[in-house]
Amino acid sequence: MMKKQGNISWMYIRYSMLSSISIALICTIIYMWKSKQDIYDFLWKESIASVPVGLLIMSTSLLIGGIVGYAIGYYVKQRIQGLNTFLFEVERGNFPKDVSFTAEDEFHEIERKVMTLTRRLEEQAGLFQKVTNERAHWNEEMKQEAISQERHRLARELHDSVSQQLFAMSMMMSAINEQVDQFPETTKKQLKLVENMVVNAQSEMRALLLHLRPVQLEGKKLTEGIEELLTELSRKQHMKIEWFVESIQLKKGVEDHLFRILQEALSNTLRHAKAKKIEVRLRQIDQYAILKIIDDGVGFEVGVGVGVNKAGSYGLQSMQERVHEIGGTLKVLSFPNKGAQIEVKVPIMIERGGE
């Protein structure tokens, strides 16, 4: 709350009245010294309009001093109140910009310096916010980096231990099943079932490793990254993988998102679809880049109005978020035992010259 500056006017009135009386007294003494008159007789015996000269001089001095003091005090009070109001807004966190001080005096210099200080405070507030935002962004980056490093560590450990053991088990089961002629039929079925379980576990492990340790483009074009990923995956998976990829001019951020969406889709397909064939297509139609992932797996029921938000439907929520980040759309088509098709449609933004 601002406090009223009520005493400053009275202070100037008192000082002005005292100054007026002092000046009148000095002038009276000088006059009496020059005129050789008795001071008492002059002040109290001589009169003007039946009013003693001394009383007239005193009352006139007080009146003039009071008027002058009030005028000066009122002016100073108004200037101080204006400055106080300005500082009160600054104290509340507001930084007035449409403020002009026109009077050219000492107060103007003070007000100019206060405005300069206010601008500096506003700049510092902006710098503090910038530093805070950068710190939050840096903390988020550090957090994401720590998560990424931990995921890579887990992926390495799983690959070096569990994945290698599953591969060894798969080789052993294949060798055993090649020599099952002397085994009973029940044993043959059980061994075949174990082999299938090992193969499924390998697929789950590869999907998990792909999810934990996603391959990065690392400066490569999207077409190169997709071909390398699918080539490596086709060597490790017991399924047919086909692809048709066109070279499309896209911004790096869009390419990274599309590549990560493809990885997520492949990971979900390997873990849930039980597919024997996967097709990947990337092509340009008009001003859109269209990515399709098609499988012949078990499929799922796409609920009306639910779409990708339905729990268990390949975990497509993260893909939906990535598609939204690049201004695209995600379409999911699937029926039970009919496979699934995921289509990502992204507009190709053309940069205009001079923009």
Structure description:
The model is unreliable at 304-312 (pLDDT under 50). Strand 6 and strand 7 (340-347) form a beta hairpin. The protein has helices at residues 7-35, 39-45, 53-91, 106-177, 185-212, 222-236, 252-273, 317-325; strands at residues 47-48, 51-52, 240-245, 277-285, 288-295, 329-334, 340-347. It has 8 helices and 7 strands, in the order H-H-E-E-H-H-H-H-E-H-E-E-H-E-E. The protein is 62% helix and 12% strand. It has a 5-stranded mixed β-sheet, covered by helices on one side. Strands 1-2 form a two-stranded antiparallel ribbon. The protein is rod-shaped. It has 355 residues and is an alpha+beta fold. Among the domains are: 7-94; 215-355, Histidine kinase-like ATPase, C-terminal domain (Heat Shock Protein 90, 2-Layer Sandwich).
Give a summary of the structure in a few sentences.
This is Sensor histidine kinase. By secondary structure, the chain is an alpha+beta fold.
Secondary-structure blueprint of this entry?
Blueprint: H1 7-35, H2 39-45, E1 47-48, E2 51-52, H3 53-91, H4 106-177, H5 185-212, H6 222-236, E3 240-245, H7 252-273, E4 277-285, E5 288-295, H8 317-325, E6 329-334, E7 340-347
Parallel strand pairs: 3-4
Antiparallel strand pairs: 1-2, 4-5, 5-7, 6-7
Helix pairs in contact: 1-3, 3-4, 4-5, 5-7, 7-8
Helix content: 55-70%
Whole-Å distance between the termini? 50 Å
CATH class of the domain at 215-355: Alpha Beta
Give the radius of gyration: 45 Å
CATH architecture of the domain at 215-355: 2-Layer Sandwich
Structural class: alpha+beta
Major sheet characteristics: 5 strands, mixed
Strand content: 5-15%
Number of helices: 8
| Assigned CATH superfamily of the domain at 215-355 | Histidine kinase-like ATPase, C-terminal domain
Listing every helix as H and every strand as E from the N terminus to the C terminus, the arrangement reads HHEEHHHHEHEEHEE
Strands, count: 7
Q: What is the global morphology?
A: rod-shaped
Average pLDDT over all residues:
78
- CATH topology (fold) name of the domain at 215-355: Heat Shock Protein 90
Main-sheet strand order equals 3-4-5-7-6
Low-confidence parts, pLDDT < 50 over ≥5 residues?
304-312
